[in-house]
Amino acid sequence: MSAHLRHADLAVPHAPGHPGQHGCPYGTHRVIQPQGVLPQPAWRIDNTMSIYDNEILIDVDALNVDAASFTQIKQAAKGDVDHIAATILDIVAQRGKLHNPVTGSGGMLIGRVAALGPALAGKTDLAVGDKVATMVSLSLTPLRIDQIHRIHQDKDQVDITGQAVLFESGLYARLPDDIPEKVALAILDVAGAPAQTARLVQPGDTVVVVGGGGKSGTLCVYEAKKRAGPTGCVIGVSPFEKDCQRLRELGWADHALQVDATNAVAMMQAVAEVTQGRLADVVINCVNLPHTEMGSILATKDRGRIYFFSMATSFTAASLGAEGVGKDVDMLMGNGYARGNAEYALSLLRESAALRHLFDTLYV
């Protein structure tokens, strides 16, 4: 960037914190506008860094911005790095959190524990200095950015100096010693995807992974192949030839289809062709762009299952769209959390040398 942008230059005044007082475990005490809602749907929250007695203060090193959010910001900024930085700082200044008003999504962060509220004694295994990744969205996390150092447009990551607050109910994962921090950050940001895939896919299933060449999509293709087994069929979908080539080289997908999932009929036809018309038992949607709901629905057989992991998903488009085409399918909407998902996602890198090499190449 041509200049170091600072959050303080754009700060909006708000109510001060109340150090020593006990806050709601879910963070409602931080909500400024509108009152009576939880921090995630709130428009604006208190991001003063004087913590309540049941909060955790984190010195932040890097943000992993949600793929849908980062894509929208990059497109609006036309790739200009200063414009991207200014947009991120402006969102945090207005809202007290990194909550993209267009996509509604955030991301997650890594950093070190700076302080623990005294009321958390015996309730957490964390200690000051521990390196952690937050497993809750930046769209609900009080965040202050003091300085943006570098924006990695190819990784959806932003190196910063700043602080954040984790509520008592907030999920976190210790950063492992055997995996580089930036790789762990990338994996933990999408940890729910392979964990939910493991729950949904059964032996012998035909599985379609939309966005199969991306970060979460690659993990889901790998996991789907494990779960579907030799009698199953895994199909990766991407509009980009380079993604399809990578899918072929990795060898976990039985078919790599170069098709634009926003073209619902083309998507259905492509999947029907390689499945002899049977379509998919399970569709995992990892695309970071909107308007892929109907492509996923039409590619799924009746009584099939769809997991919309992507934060670009419209519930309205999916629900009314399925009704409109008479598709009786079960749809799981983007719950990025599954119990144990952090350790499970990291374990995939430990068990697969090919996965580890790929993510080391992309994110180190």
Description of the structure:
The chain is of the alpha/beta class and 364 residues long. The protein has two domains: 7-175, no CATH class; 192-363, Rossmann fold (3-Layer(aba) Sandwich). The protein has eleven helices and 14 strands. It has helices at residues 67-77, 81-95, 181-189, 192-200, 215-228, 241-250, 264-274, 293-298, 315-324, 341-351, 353-363; strands at residues 31-33, 44-45, 56-65, 107-116, 131-134, 143-152, 157-166, 172-174, 206-210, 233-238, 255-258, 280-285, 300-308, 330-333. It has a six-stranded antiparallel beta sheet with strand order 6-7-3-4-5-8. Strands 11-10-9-12-13-14 form a six-stranded parallel beta sheet, sandwiched between helices. A two-stranded antiparallel ribbon has the order 1-2. α9 links the parallel β13 and β14. α4 runs parallel beside α5 (215-228). Residues 1-17 have low confidence and may be disordered.
Salient structural properties:
364 residues; six-stranded antiparallel sheet; 14 strands; disordered N terminus
Q: Write the CATH fold name of the largest domain.
A: Rossmann fold
The total of helices stands at: 11
Overall geometry comes to globular
- CATH first level of the largest domain: Alpha Beta
Q: List SSEs in N-to-C order.
A: EEEHHEEEEEHHEHEHEHEHEHEHH
Distance between the termini: 20 Å
Radius of gyration computed on alpha carbons? 21 Å
Q: Strand-residue fraction?
A: 15-25%
Number of strands: 14
- CATH homologous superfamily (4th level) name of the largest domain: NAD(P)-binding Rossmann-like Domain
Record the strand order, biggest sheet: 6-7-3-4-5-8
Helix content range of the residues, please?
25-40%
Q: What would you call the structural class?
A: alpha/beta
CATH architecture of the largest domain: 3-Layer(aba) Sandwich
Mean pLDDT: 92
What does the largest sheet look like? 6 strands, antiparallel
List the domain count as a whole number.
Answer: 2
Poorly predicted sequence stretches spanning 5 or more consecutive residues: 1-17
